[in-house]
Every structure is written in structure tokens, then in C-alpha cells.
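STRUCTURE REQUEST FORM
Protein name: Binding-protein-dependent transport systems inner membrane component
Source organism: Fervidobacterium nodosum
Requested output: C-alpha cells
Priority: standard
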Amino acid sequence: MTKQVLLTIFGVIVPLIGVYYSVKKGKKPLNYIFLLISLALYYGALFNVKYLYLFSPRFNFIIAPIVYFYSFDLPGLAKFIRNRLAQIVLLLVIYVTVVFFIFLAMPGDYTTKFLDPKLMRNPEMYERMKQLFGVEDPWYVKYYKHMKNFFNLEMGISFSEYPKKVEEIIAERLPRTLFLFLASSVLSFLLGFDLGKRIAWKRGGITDKAATLVGIIFWTIFTPFYMLIIIWLFAVTLKWFPLSGFVTPSKWFNAPFSAQNVFIRLLWTELFLLIMWIMGIAIASKLKTIKAKKTAIWSSVIAGIALSIIYWLTNGMGSYALDIIYHLALPTIALVTLHFAGDMLVMRDTMLEVIKEDYITTARAKGLPDKVIRDKHAARTALLPLMTSFVIGLASTVSGGVITETMFSWKGMGLTLLEATTAQDTPLAIGCLVFTGVLVLFAHLIADILYAFLDPRIRY
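Status: completed
Returned output:
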């Protein structure tokens, strides 16, 4: 598309659709007031009018549709999403502001941390560098520049990994962290959910007591100590898995592609398998018998695995992908055994509360099989707190994997955040923290929306 066509679409057609909708659906003067405000924000961003945008044009593009829809009486879930998006934008601004002022309050500046001491002996050159970095600027000037750069997706240049840009480093390390923690989180979630509902249904027995004891031990164990035991047992003593790292350097010496390319393809494969599993659950929800539901889910998962295997056997990267998965195995085992305990205990406690509800008693009075009551009625409701923990925990692991990635030398976001903080690489540390905050905010929104689909009693 040419620039003129894009300008016609975004400068004329999109605003006209908004005006038409306001005229047709708007019944109050408030609709037209919000329409004018949103159009001012939109055109200010589109034509880069300095006094018509806030931090940056992209920030206007984010808030203009939210402002526009705020004057309409939307249906339940749409209204909830609109309000939550507005809250997310506000919380994001507050979060980025707090992170900025925390790092601003730290002693020293870029020139004293990273410049060559010989250069600092030349007063004229040193003053020029301070002016270039804006060291002498007032705090509000620094703040505005920071917010403008953030919403323009310009996080600056990493000083510890110069001349790489912060966004480039995040784009490089993020797939590694997501690949590791998505696999371990899904496995621990499934294991915790299944064991939790089973031991709660047969509470008080030996299995319940043993599983609860094991869960408490893994939930309360000191994580670095446990991971040292895992490394010593499986990597040093038994030598089943590599000691650390995410690839075998000798295998990749003459590789025709980078490890990053394989990581990204593996991540897409992982997401594809997750989608196939969700599709199986969606199909199963339309079926009536438990046997049919299980068949639908397992068929979807097996089909996804078969297609993934065919893909990796035919793309020439299969052996390299296996090397990464081989290095992934030990940290995944460590994370799954640690996290499943919390998921299992949450599921158990929630199930025990759900079992006392009247509708469970009614289902039993109707003569429904125990398996149907447990899986279809009790487990679905008890899943809500566990699903919230899973979604939010998945987002927070982007920075929360500091211990795991450090112990296993897995160069992901957690280890990057730790190294950036210890090296006082402010741009990179801020970039990692802010990116994590964005994911957590949107994870809360996804968790709330999932509540409406999982629990028929909840309506927005």
C-alpha cells in the first residue's frame, strides 16, 4: 500500500466510521464530547501535532479508542474489558513512573559508571558527554524524555552489552524464558490440577495425607538448595543431563542457522501444541459423556504432536532442536516439581470448599456418577483460583526466573535482569522490569475474562 492509501484509510475512513457510530448510537451530548476528544487525540498522533499528543503519538493511538468508547453503554463483558483497559493504561503509566524514579534516585549516572576514566580527565569532553546524556537536565525533562521513548518503544542502548539496543536484547532473551517457563508451567498446572482434584475427592485417606505432605515439602523447600541437589544428582552423579547452558557449543559450530532461530521456532511449536490442547478442550465442552470429552482432548493433543514431529523432521533443524530440548529437560524437571506442589495444594483446598456446596449435594441426590460430579461440576468451579494463579504466574516468570536461570546458566530474561542490575546497566534493567509489568497487567485482564467463561455464575 502507498502512503496516500494508508493516509486515506486511517485519516478519513476510520474517523468517519467513528463519527457514524456516534451519530447512530449516541443519545447524549457526552457521546459527542468524547468523540471530539478522541478525534483530537487521534489526529494529533496521526499528523504528529506536538501539542495534541501526550507522551508520544503511539500513546495517543492507545488511549483514543478507550476515550471514544467510554461514552457508550456497552454490554457486560465489553464494558468490563473497556474499563480494565483504561485501568491498565493508567497503571502502566504509574508503574513506568515509579520504576523511573527508583532508578533516578540511585547514586551516580551514566558518565561515572560506563565512560573511560581517561576521557573523564578531559573537562571539556566530560562536560560534552554529560550534556549529551542529559545528566544536568531537570528531573521533569528526564521524566518526559523517558516516557516519550518508552511509548515509542525506544528503550535505549545497553551499556553492559554496547552497542545492542535494549529492545533487541529483550527480543533475543524473551523466547528462551518463555520456552522454558511455558513448558514447565503448563506441565505443573496439569499435574497439580489432576492430583489436587483426586486427593480432595478422597480426602482423609493415605494418598491424601502423603500427597499433601509431599506438596508442602516441595512448596516450602529453599529453591537454590533444591536446584543444587537436582544438578548434583542428575548432572554430576548420574550424568543424565548437561550441567548448564542451553546448547552444546561444538554441535552448533558449523550450524547454518543461529540458536535464536531454532528457539523461536520451538516457541511457536509450543504455542501450537497449547492451541491444539485448548481446541480439544473447546470441542470437549460441546460433548456430553466423559469418555467422548477425553477422546476429543487426547485426539487433538496427539494430532498436534504428530504434526510438530513431521515439521521438525522435514525442516533440517530437528537435531539442533533436540539439543536445546536436552538442555531444557533438567531445569524443566526442577520447575515442575517445585510448582506443581503449589498448584496441587490450591486445587485441593478449593475442591474441599466446592464439595460442600448445595449443587454438589443435589448432583449426588440425582444419582450422578462420582466421576461426573467430580470432573464436570466440582473441578470446573475449583479451577478458577488455579487458573488465575497460572495466568498471572506465567507472566511474572519473565522476571521471576532469576534463581532458575542463574542456577542453570540459562541466558533468559531473569538472568539478564540480574546481570543488568548488578552491572548498573540502567536502560536494560528498566526495560526488563517494565516489560514484565506490561505482561502482568495484561495477564490480570486475561484471568478476569477466563473467569466469565469458566464459571457460569460470574457475569460482567
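Reviewer notes: DSSP finds 19 helices and no strands in the chain. Residues 284 and 294 are 7 Å apart (CA to CA).
Form closed.
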